[in-house]
């Protein structure tokens, strides 16, 4: 496969994601979880700027990884080619395993201080909606693709299975960030399998005991298996963002891109949370002297 041929499905996928974002934004308007305010208007430009930067960086890395996967398939390298499973079974294992790679990468970005410096660009959004989904630093894209690539090389998935995973992962990400109200009964059923509508909202809480849970992307199983699951019903009333990152200058496109390179004493951790976590000499330190955040206003509390 040539690079030009590999870029064609990448462009098609971007088109699908943009169209899906528009659809989800209309649903958010019709049945919002939280009432929109000035913060939604203020974060729109920077979020879309980072989204399109991520589209560009991910397209390049995705093409490189697809070409590696095509080579793996042609040379029957990896676990799945060795097992010679039926195509559907191999594809299902590939999707679940690649989703596990997302879980592992996500936990690492919370536990490794150098990775967290990039990931907090995504977490410091003071409101969460569909535009938050791909609000991430290019450095985070490198981290995610490094983990995904390592799992892909070991597994040897088919290009088709990889494509299914990437599209499913992106679309599920839009839904789990959507500012969308849903019945709690529906949420309880969906949370048995997947991460939306409310499960991932807790992950964007200002409270680290909630932020450091619910890491999954497509499936909720890994959070349950590794005891990082917080009941999704609590995701209705969440105060989003990171303390220390609410300065309007930080919430611009340039400010967000600069966040990973801030001095250690500027917004290095969740400075005003309980329990708050800050990075000190490369270690996470828990400090229990900050007030709890209050519940966020909800557009309609009935579910």
Tell me about this structure.
- The protein is mainly alpha-helical and 303 residues long.
- The protein has one domain.
- Helices cover 54% and strands 3% of the residues.
- It is built from eleven helices and two strands.
- It has a two-stranded antiparallel ribbon.
- A hairpin with a 2-residue loop joins β1 and β2.
- α1 runs antiparallel to α2, α2 runs parallel beside α6 and α4 packs across α6.
- It is globular, with a radius of gyration of 19 Å.
- The C terminus is likely disordered.
Mean pLDDT: 88
Find the structural class using helix and strand composition: mainly alpha
Q: Using DSSP, what is the number of strands? A: 2
Spatial order of strands in the largest sheet = 1-2
Q: Kindly estimate the percentage of residues that lie in beta strands according to DSSP.
A: under 5%
- Secondary-structure element pattern, one letter each: HHHHHHHHHHHEE
Q: Low-confidence parts, pLDDT < 50 over ≥5 residues?
A: 268-303
Q: Radius of gyration, Cα only, in angstroms?
A: 19 Å
The percent of residues in helical segments reads 40-55%
Note the overall shape.
globular
Q: Note the total helix count.
A: 11
Distance between the termini: 50 Å
Give the biggest sheet: 2 strands, antiparallel
């Amino acid at each position: 496969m040539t690079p030009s041929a590999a870029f064609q499905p990448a462009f098609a996928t971007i088109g699908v994601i943009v169209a899906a974002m528009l659809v989800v934004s209309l649903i958010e308007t019709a049945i919002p979880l939280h009432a929109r305010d000035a913060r939604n208007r203020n974060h729109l430009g920077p979020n879309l700027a980072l989204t399109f930067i991520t589209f560009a960086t991910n397209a390049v890395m995705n093409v490189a990884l697809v070409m590696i996967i095509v080579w793996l398939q042609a040379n029957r390298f990896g676990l799945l080619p060795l097992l010679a499973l039926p195509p559907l079974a191999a594809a299902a294992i590939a999707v679940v395993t690649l989703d596990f790679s997302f879980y592992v990468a996500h936990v690492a970005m919370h536990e490794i201080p150098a990775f967290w410096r990039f990931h907090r660009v995504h977490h410091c959004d003071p409101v969460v909606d569909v535009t938050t989904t791909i609000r991430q630093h290019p450095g985070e894209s490198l981290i995610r693709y490094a983990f995904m690539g390592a799992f892909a090389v070991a597994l040897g998935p088919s290009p088709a299975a990889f494509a299914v995973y990437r599209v499913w992962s992106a679309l599920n990400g839009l839904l789990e960030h959507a500012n969308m109200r849903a019945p709690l009964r529906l949420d309880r059923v969906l949370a048995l399998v997947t991460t939306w509508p409310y499960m991932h909202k807790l992950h964007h809480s200002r409270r680290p005991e909630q932020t450091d849970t619910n890491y999954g992307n497509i499936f909720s199983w890994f959070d349950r298996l590794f005891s990082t699951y917080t009941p999704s019903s609590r995701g209705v009333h969440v105060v989003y963002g990171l303390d220390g990152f609410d300065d309007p200058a930080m919430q611009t496109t340039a400010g967000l891109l600069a966040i990973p390179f801030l001095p250690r004493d500027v917004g290095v951790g969740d400075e005003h949370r309980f329990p708050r976590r800050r990075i000190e000499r490369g270690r996470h330190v828990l400090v229990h002297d900050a007030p709890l955040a209050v519940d966020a206003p909800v557009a309609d509390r009935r579910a």
